[in-house]
């Protein structure tokens, strides 16, 4: 079992030294606006290309039963939280009505590209909103809510899940695919601890060591299916993932 404590602190300090220009920009209040407007949309677009290839078969399987959650009218209303550049659009069934939300409105280029690629969907509107505050979305108005690689960076996972349950109609489903903490006795978790502060700073609040399956189990879903999987992204500490869905 890898020893934590002093080793983690020492390696964190080394990593912070390597990233010292970013820490300086953060101290001066310049990193966050640059990250939000330029760096994060750019780097997420690049990471998404690799992640999408690795996760494609899992997403195809995940969204296979999405049409089963059509509402009484026969329509399928989907709310995606943290839409980013819209890499999930390709997996949604034809004709579904998609409402997009993201706390960061700076993904227009990638979003427009994926909307043009996926004209089998009806795009309702784009809302600039945090996962914890979806007040612009009426209660019980959605047949499905989708959230992929988002819960790692929300301020409050429990608040975000409460909002998911609020906007879902009874019998609606919440679909998720998220990276999570590795097994505590593993070297993977050791390196997640080492990278944690610098990773969180560089990648817009992304937390490496969240045990999100526990939050999902504590939320009040009537049915919950969770699968632990590994998606290897070379050079990153985000291999362990969970994928599944919960029914309200």
Automatic annotation (TrEMBL):
Q: Which Pfam families match?
A: Methyltransf_11
Q: The Methyltransferase type domain covers which part of the protein?
A: 79-176
Gene3D superfamilies xref list: Vaccinia Virus protein VP39
Chain segments annotated as transmembrane: none
A GO term for molecular function: S-adenosylmethionine-dependent methyltransferase activity
By its UniProt entry, which SUPFAM superfamilies does this protein fall under? Answer: S-adenosyl-L-methionine-dependent methyltransferases (SSF53335)
- PANTHER family associated with the record: METHYLTRANSFERASE LIKE 7A (PTHR45036:SF1), METHYLTRANSFERASE LIKE 7B (PTHR45036)
List the protein's name.
Answer: Methyltransferase like 7A
Q: Which organism is it from?
A: Malurus cyaneus samueli
